Amino acid sequence: MPPPFSLLNFFRNRDTLRKFFAEEVVQRFPNNNPLDVDKVTTGVSMSELEKTPKAETGNVTGLYTEHEEWVVNMGEKTIHAKRMPGFFRTLKYITESFWLILFLGPYLRWNGKQALMLDVNDRQFHIFGLTILPQDIWMVSLLLLLLAMTLFAVTSVASRVFCGYFCFQTTWVDLFTWIEEKIEGNPNARHKLDAAPMDGAKFGKKALKHALWLLIAILTGISVIIWFEDAFVFWGNLLHFNLSLIEVATLIAFTLGTYFLAGFLREQTCLWLCPYARIQGVMCDSQTLVPTYDEKRGEPRGRIRKGAAAEESKQGDCIDCFQCVQVCPTGVDIRQGQQLGCITCGLCLDACDSIMDKIGRPRGLIRYMTLDEVNGLPEKKLYQHPRTLVYIGILLIALVGIIYGLSHMGNLTLRVAPERQPLFVRMSDGSIQNKYTFKVLNKTAGDVQVKVSAEGGVKGQIIVDGGKPQLIHHGKASAFTVFVKAPEENLMSETTKIQFRVENLDDPNMKAEYDTVFTGPKR
Amino acid sequence: MSDNHNSVGGVPTTGHVWDDDLGDFVNQPPKWWMLGLTASTIWVCVYWLMYPSVPVAIAGHHWTGIGLPGSGQWSAISELAADQKVLDDARAKYEDKLKGMTPAAILADAELSEYVARSGKVLFSDNCAACHGQNGVGTVQAGKFAQREKGLMAPILNDDDWLYGGTVDTIHETITGGRQGMMPAHKDVLSAAEIDSLAASVAAGTPAANPLFAEKGCTGCHGEDGKGMQAMGSANLTDKIWRFDGSPEGIKQTITYGVNSGDANARVAVMPSFTAAGKLSDVQMKKLAVYVYKFGGGTPAAAPAPVEAAAAASEAPAAEAVAK
Ligand code: SF4
Ligand code: SF4
Predict the structure, then answer these.
(1) Residue B178, pLDDT score
(2) CATH homologous superfamily of domain A412-519?
(3) Given its phi and psi angles, is residue A142 left (phi above 0), alpha (psi -120 to 50 degrees) or beta?
(4) Ligand 1 nearest-atom number relative to CA A167
(5) What is the rounded CA–CA span in Å between residue A255 and residue A219?
(6) Per-residue DSSP letters for A431-492?
(7) Which of A187, A257, A440, B246 sits CB 3.0–4.6 Å from B242 for a disulfide?
(8) A47 touches chain B (CB under 8 A)
(9) Where in chain A do CATH 2.60.40.10 domains reside?
(10) pLDDT by residue (tens digit) across A152-198?
(11) Chain B, 172-211: which have a CB under 8 Å from a chain A CB?
(12) B118 touches chain A (CB under 8 A)
């Protein structure tokens, strides 16, 4: 079992530190991999590093001319990734369509109301028939814990599954580049178009693309907002230009945010902005499955040359076709090893597999592998991965909590606060009166009338107005005051236990209890 | 600082190396990042211009800022006023209703009486609690106080014993018009022995049993049965609540020197008129009446609900106890 991760240990350990530092270099200077001792070139000047390898002559396919490289990806150049069909490509389309819920969910109706609504204004969440009030908010925190632990557990098993398959950044970028491809053509065509001088045709294409992007961005903004207020009311207000300032501001923020993040920042978000990239990064360890280039099988890489059959036996399976780099949405060369730019989307696996099929080699030169497997260490089973088990444990606890909460969410809850000053009042007939503030929460859909009764307490006590029906509005905590009087001579001690009950006048099964005390003079 | 001897492959660093092999790359931050930084810098300048950002005043003058588009120059006091307006606007729908309502009508309206109970709490603490105690628990004076001051300074408001009546309208009357207790001094009328005798029977809660009670004219104010008369604010001498001090000593003091009788040793019992004081608005006085009523001792005005009747039965002789 690896030692538990600690920042202190991490920084104390010089070797780890060196490796960390060096990995950073791998990311930033992909051409110059210091981990690969043989390749360390000392004294290389910056200008040399920045040179882009020129397309070489003598290759058998046109593949080689497609690729380009950069030293530090700071977004100076737009990445135009190639789309190749394959298992992971299909999987990604499926997982990404999860976000359709965002667009369609708010239009679901339930009993004449919006089925899914996070009504922040009225402080209640509606999930079909269920209403979550602020009093139940602990369940929402458990839900967040559950989601966080799911993220952790999944990431520790199969690395950044969220990034590669579910993240909204990934999804929207995928959608935006799909539109780009439909309008401007394949990556080569797009590069050419970008380089070409502005003319009518180019302008038309660009304008159409940006218009569509903006349309999606606006739709995204609207879809986010209508999770928080009634969808149809919002559309109505929108079409009548009758939005509140905060609605307009939210809409603009989400629209522009979507447009810039998915249209322009793209992989830069993952590389330099997103904290989840880093958080998920530390969730991975040597037992985590990550898209990995099988170096033993692939190296020494070399291009297929005509009539080089004799040499080929010495060559590895990687024909250095750069298809894996071509398809990568973040412009990573996975053959340099796992790195923080990789969102583990599996697209390079598809690309490489298709090449392997073409050259008649087995698939899986790039595949999901653990670091242990790469290093030839014995593979451990999932149950031997204690960290994952801890995550799953916490996850289950949160789940149990939520299930408990949902199944014990009575329709009526009662809180009784005895008056603190004065604790009791002596009345003119000598009896002792206590004052209680009742807070009754009605979680049903309709208003109810309740009556108050008590169990225990002092002999001969009277609940003033106890039978008087109290109106409790639905979805709200209503407060009212209740006085209890008792003859002083019946008081056995300074405090006496008393249990209050409120009961729906129409439905005696709908009730709630609360234990508190009746206070009298010191004796 | 030492020479660049890091082993990561001859990439350019700032040259500053520490802990043997740690260095800083000289990479430029991304362009969008620099743009963001520049934009923030510009924004800071705009901010600086808009607000009164120089924390010094010279000869009473300070930089007031060129103001915000649409809302003029900013100042803390105008922001406060704006915030208060938000609050007032939110309350307006209640406050407007309160203006035209009687205290009894306010009390009958569940929502309004809940609202009034909340704002009443603040009003009560500011205006009433000094004499009546926080939440109307009364303020007991003991120890170093003179005999005439010993006991309750002002009535407890959360019991059901009222000198002048406990309906919400009467309470409102008491607040607006004030009250002044009145009991003559008896030091020249009664002998010490008579005072002792009367004090003893009042302390026992049975004043009418003492022949002196009728003989000496106590019944004129306190009634034949000693239960007091709310119309004149005379105390109920038979219940368990004492306006001043229920000890025989205290009762003797009250009988001997009276209440507001002009005698130097008389007890003082004055409730100021809040209308005359001019400090509270009409609505505020109504709020206080409802608030005080809701302490728990208020007398229902109309025919009460059945359970209430049972409870109120014992409260029925709800007269107060002046000068017990
Ligand atoms: S790095 Fe961040 S933005 Fe990028 S795919 Fe992962 S979670 Fe999404
Ligand atoms: S390297 Fe492969 S798995 Fe990683 S982001 Fe690029 S295409 Fe996806």
Answers:
(1) 93
(2) Immunoglobulins (2.60.40.10)
(3) alpha
(4) 8
(5) 8
(6) -EEEEEEEEEEE-SSS-EEEEEEEEES-TT-EEETTTS-EEE-TTSEEEEEEEEEE-GGG--
(7) B246
(8) no
(9) 412-519
(10) 999 999 999 999 999 999 999 999 999 999 999 999 999 999 999 99
(11) none
(12) no
pLDDT in tens, A487-502: 988 888 899 999 999 9
CA-to-CA distance for A181 and A185, rounded, in angstroms?
5
Give the ipTM of the model, two decimals please: 0.72
Domains and CATH numbers, chain B: 8-63 (no CATH), 91-271 (1.10.760.10)
Is the confidence at residue B96, as pLDDT, over 60?
Answer: yes
Would you call A466 and B318 a contact, using CB atoms and an 8 Å cutoff? no
Using one digit for the tens of pLDDT, what is the confidence trace for B285-315? 999 999 999 888 888 875 444 444 344 334 4
Residue A287 has pLDDT above 50, yes or no: yes
Q: Does B45 touch chain A (CB under 8 A)?
A: no
Helices (H), A299-359: 309-312, 323-327, 347-359
With 0.80 as the threshold, say if the pTM is over it.
no
Find residues 442-481 of chain A whose CB sits inside 8 Å of chain B: 462-468, 471, 479-481
